[in-house]
């Protein structure tokens, strides 16, 4: 619960796509905001404009979390001026590497922005975070080049993982790739990789219990991971 509100989770479908019908069925008169992540973490999938518009048409405020936008270049920001109930949220945590500073921004309809300015904390962005943002913007071409390298390596990693044959990588628009493994195998592989000094994300949840999420690193990181996966199969 947050400030008297209750979070209602609507699971994604078995192939990790957005369950728009499920979201609409979960709406009640008390529903205030629909949150959707695109690209989604941990699947890396994006939502379509059609899906977002279907949610916007419910009349509820729709907040699209685009924390990984820079790795996909697919955004709903251009739609915000045309709708009173659509919000896009961004962060400097991923593409600029400022996760520890907790700094980001939003693209809002004017009326919602005015309301948020009335209720927000007076000093919600630290001086350190502001300095970090300004430094990032001053060196934005370098950071964009880093993003381009990660995207290129993501596609290479996807091909390498797919070539192993015994796990299934899902196409991703983030800086990570989700893989499904044979039933009951994910935790075992996770533990064996840890022993080799390779850390990936294991999810002990019903929908993701047979999955691992792998962050995209440098080419040599990809090579070390693939070598280790061949050994732990």
Automatic annotation (TrEMBL):
Keyword Hydrolase included in the entry's annotation: no
Keywords of this entry: Aminotransferase, Pyridoxal phosphate, Transferase
Keyword check for Transferase: yes
Aminotransferase class I/classII large domain ranges (all copies): 3-229
InterPro entries (alphabetical): Aminotransferase_I/II_large, PyrdxlP-dep_Trfase, PyrdxlP-dep_Trfase_major, PyrdxlP-dep_Trfase_small
Pfam families: Aminotran_1_2
MF GO annotations: pyridoxal phosphate binding; transaminase activity
Cofactor (UniProt): pyridoxal 5'-phosphate
Protein name: Aminotransferase class I/classII large domain-containing protein
Native organism taxonomy: unclassified sequences, metagenomes, ecological metagenomes
